[in-house]
Design a protein that fits this description.
Blueprint lengths: L1 H20 L4 H37 L3 H49 L3 H7 L7 H41 L1 E6 L2 E6 L1 H21 L2 H24 L1 H7 L2 H53 L5 H18 L1 H4 L1 H25 L4 E6 L4 E8 L5 E9 L5 E6 L5 H8 L6 E7 L5 E4 L8 E2 H6 L9 H10 L12 E2 L1 H4 L2 H15 L3 E5 L7 H14 L4 E5 L11 E5 L5 E5 L1
Parallel strand pairs: 3-7, 6-12, 6-13, 8-11, 11-12
Antiparallel strand pairs: 1-2, 4-5, 4-7, 9-10, 13-14
Helix pairs in contact: 1-12, 2-3, 2-5, 2-10, 3-5, 4-12, 5-10, 5-12, 6-9, 6-10, 7-9, 7-12, 9-10, 15-17
Length: 570
Amino acid sequence: MLSYKIMYYLKGFKILAKGYWTSDKKWQGIGILSVVIVLNLLSVFLTVLINDWYKEFWDVLQAYQFDQFWYLVGKFSLIALIYISIGVYAVYLQQMLQIKWREWMTDRYLVQWLKNKAYYRLKLAGNDMDNPDQRISEDINQFVALTLSLSIGLLRQLISLVAFVVILWNLSGIITVPVGSYEFTIYGYMVWISLIYSIAGTYLTHKVGRLLINLNFEQQKYEADFRFSMMRVRENAESIAFYRGEKPEFVGFGQRFCAVIKNFRAIMTRTKLLNAFTVGYGQLAIIIPIFMAAPRWFAMEVQVGWIMQLLNAFGKVQEAMSYLVDSYASIAQWCSVIRRLEGFDRHIKEAVDLKSEVTFTQADNVRLDGVDIYLPNGDGLVKDCSLDMQDKHSLLIMGHSGVGKSTVLRTLAGLWPYAKGSITLPQESDFLFLPQKPYLPLGSLRRTICYPLVDDKSLDDKLKEILITCQLGKLANKLDKADEWSRILSLGEQQRLAFARILLYKPRYVFLDEATSALDEELEQYLYTMLEKYLPQTKIISVGHRPSLIGKHQYKLVLSDNGKWSLEKL
């Protein structure tokens, strides 16, 4: 089981890390990483010099050689200055690499999330994992930071281990252990003691702290759920206020926060046990070499400089061998981040692979040939629908709620994968879809109207004219004002703003999914008349319930509960 989990995390790490280190940015990353490695090698070399300095310094003190004292102080100061400078730049360059790697991964994940409308299809596939925004913003940052710190730290400790094992082996000498009438000679005995001690410590640390991996994974999820619930209240403040829903929202906050606290208490308990063990493990490692060196000291075989050099060398060997023990909490967090990002990767690929059997072709017309639309569970919504808008100027899609009216538009837009047949559409610039609730991005009013195109100040006069035409003249002088327009404008005003986009884009086809549901009938009639007046060549396909819309369309497509449909001329 342990080997399976290790392979799972290593495989996940390989998938996540491979992209950047095989991309066109790899040489820049390799260059920075190489410098960081060289700096860490120099840092280990300097620690070896400091270890030698310990022996010299304490031997001078023991011999009362005052003439050598200031020389050794100066030597240490120079080594320390170089050591500090190398350490500062090693961290600085490591953080630079972290930024570049994170920038590349964030860009890649954003592209994946938006590509082929994966952000939408995740919900359809039932794989809408919790808080993809957190996985892109926080988990990527943690993955890169922890990967660099753990891997560079491991490399540094391995180099340090090689350097100081040689020193410790030479300092340890030989020990003879009598066992009955036999005597066993052990060379470099302190190296073996350190090895046995660190292996035992690593094993026990894993037994104590392994639950932290799942606990950290769950903590990220609970924290994100709690934060998202508050974001939902902010986004739906008016609706909640009308419902007087403060009490149930507070109860919901409490439930989610209780999950945060409960899981964090479990982390606290497990961390307490882990810390108790690792602190005790570290303190015991200090006294072990003293016990082992005491016999030679009291036998007057060595000087105090030897003792200090031995203690420092043993500490470095022990620190290197105990790297997994000291870094276990970070490793547990790293594993949980890999698990979250690997899941994100997998679900995104599943969403992208969720392809319909509809064949899309491009022409100057909108046409459906033998299109079947069904639910994810296989139940049919619309069967064998064929429609040609070539000789039709406007079409109204009607039917009872739930028969699939909006889903027909989703299929035409390529959003709904559960369909088959053939659909013909003009090029993308020639048609425009308007959902029931318009999306208003953050930023200036100009940007909001022009969305999804880039806003252009040269259009200001035209935009003002369009706003007045859509009975939004009060907004005409606010094009430069940046605000949360979805909060400021009523739903009816937002729908009129969406109609302003039609006048701006002048598409050949416009698809309206109950795009006037928040307007009174008089204003609804005005907007449809406006389209007829200013865009007489634009063909309209609407989804709606109101009988008042019938007079504004030439044809009516009626959907039934059993998947049947009928086309009538009005």
